[in-house]
Amino acid sequence: MIALVIGGTGFIGSHLLDQLVAEGDLVRVLAPDPERFRAPKENIDYRAGTLMDAAALRSALEGVDVVYHLANSKVPSTSNQDPIADIQENLMATVDLLESMRQAGVGRIVFLSSGGTVYGECGSESVPEDHVLQPSSSYGIVKVAIENYLCMFKRLYGLSYCALRASNPYGPRQGAIGVQGVIATMLYRTFRNEAISIWGDGGVVRDYLYIDDLAKGISTAGRAGLEGTFNIGSGEGHSLVELLDVIREVTGTEPGVEFQPSRKVDIQRIVLDISRIRMQLGWEPKVSLARGVELHWLWMQSAIKGGML
Amino acid sequence: MIALVIGGTGFIGSHLLDQLVAEGDLVRVLAPDPERFRAPKENIDYRAGTLMDAAALRSALEGVDVVYHLANSKVPSTSNQDPIADIQENLMATVDLLESMRQAGVGRIVFLSSGGTVYGECGSESVPEDHVLQPSSSYGIVKVAIENYLCMFKRLYGLSYCALRASNPYGPRQGAIGVQGVIATMLYRTFRNEAISIWGDGGVVRDYLYIDDLAKGISTAGRAGLEGTFNIGSGEGHSLVELLDVIREVTGTEPGVEFQPSRKVDIQRIVLDISRIRMQLGWEPKVSLARGVELHWLWMQSAIKGGML
Questions:
Q1: Tell me, what's the ipTM?
Q2: Between β-strands A108-114 and A66-69, what pairing exists: parallel, antiparallel or unpaired?
Q3: Domain of A59: which CATH number?
C-alpha cells in the first residue's frame, strides 16, 4: 500500500509514520515543516507543502491508496480568534483535497476529527458517536462540517472514509509549551520545579489516549473497509486532580499547584464511548494511564537533557 | 426599529418586507437584484449588493437594530456541484457578516436556516430541534455550520440570534420554474395542461408552510429577545399524492401525472415538530394547506395572464 500522510510531521503524524512503516506500507508525507524531535527517516518520501498548495498536493496524491489527513492549521483557541482563516485553511482546503482525490482516483481517506470539541457539553455519561453535536469553537465547527462533507462525498461519489474523533493524545514527542497537551505541560513543569496551573477545582475530566494506541487505531482504520465516524479514546475519564496523583507517583516528585479561576470555555467532563470502534474495527487501547505517563516522562527527561525541549 | 433584510428581494424576503413595514419598522434591503414580480416599494431603502460586498454591507449596517439574513447563493442541488463556492459565498460571507455586526454594534440577527436539509433522514416522527443533524447536501452542511457559528458568537461576544429552520414555503410570488417549490411547479403545470412529474410512488412527505405564516414568524423572531434555534413549519406532513388531491380540488382540473423513478437523494419523509416555537415565541401557522394553495393559485393565474410568469 502507498499511504500519504498529510500533516505527517506533527506529534500524531510522527507516530503514525512509524506504525505504517512497521506494517510495510510505502509512506509519503505532505507537511510544511520537518519533524521537531528527530531527523527525517530514510525510508519515507517527504514532500514540503500544505493542503493549500495545489501543485504539491496533486503530485503527492499520485498512485496513493489511502490518505491520512492529520493536518490542522489551528488549535481550538486560535481558531476562535480567526474563524475565517480556519474555514479557508481547514474546511475549504479539505473539500479541495476530496475533489483532488476524486480526480486522482484515490479511493480512501482517514480523517482525524476531534472527540474533545465536536460534542460540546456531555453530562456524566460516556458520549457515543450519535450524540448531538454542539461544537463550541470554530475548530470543532469545522471538524463537524468536514465529517459531513466526507459523508456527502461517500454518497455522491463513493469516496470511502473513516473519521476518527480522537480524545486527548499524549506521549513521547508531544511539545510541552504549546496550548494543547495537559500531561506534557504538567510533566514539563514538574521537571523544572515550576508550579502547575489548575483552572477551577481540578475536577475537569478528560479522556487521555496514549499516542501509540492512537497511531495503531489510525492505521487500522486506514486498512479497514469500514465507513463512518468512530470515537477513539481510552474510554476512561480522569480529572486533573487524578492526573496530578499519577504524575506524583511516576516522577517521585511533589508538583507545586496553583489553582486559577475556571475558564469560561471549559467543558466540565468529556469521556468517549468507544464501543463502536472496539466492535467494528477490533481496536482497543492497550496502554494504561500510569504506564503511558511513565513512558512520556522517560522520553521527556532525555529530551530535556538532550536540549530538545 | 431599523431592520436590514439581507436577500430581501427574493420570495421570502418580499413577504418579510411587507410584514416589517406593516409592523412599523424602517426597512433597509441589501440584495443584488430587484424583486421579480413587483416594483420597488416607496418606503423601503434598497441597497444593491451581496454579502460579499464589504463596503455595501458596512454601509447597510449603519444604525441597524436587527438583521434578517435570508440570502443564499445556492439551492441544495447546485450547492453539491460546487461546494467550495457554497462555503465561500454562504458560510464565510456569513461569518464575515457576524464580524461586521460586532464592529458596527448591531446586536441581533435572525438567520433563515433550513428544516428540510439539516436533519437528513428522520423516520416517521416529527423532528424536534435537538434531533441529530445529518445534512446530506453542501447547502445543509453550510446551514449547520452557520448555526454553530451563531451560537459561538453569542457565547463569545453576546451577539443575540435566532436561527429559524424553515420547512417548505409556498405562496404568491414564488417562482415556478426553478428547482425549489413543488407546489408552485405543480400549479404552473396544471395551468399549462402539462403533466406533473412525480418521483417514486408519490409517497414522499414534506411540511409545507404558507408564506405569510413564515414571514410573520420571522418578524416575530426579530422582535423577541429569545436566543437559539427553532423549527418553523406547519407541523403537518403531506405526501405528493395528497398535494395532487388538493390541487385537483382548488383548480377544478385533473392534472396529468408522470411517475418517474425515485431520485437517490430524496429523503422519504420530513415533518417538523413546532412545539418549541409555539411555546417560546407564541407563533403558530394560521393558513391551511387548502386555503394557501388557493391563494397561491389565484396569484399565479393573474401573474401568468399578466405575462409575469
A1: 0.94
A2: parallel
A3: 3.40.50.720
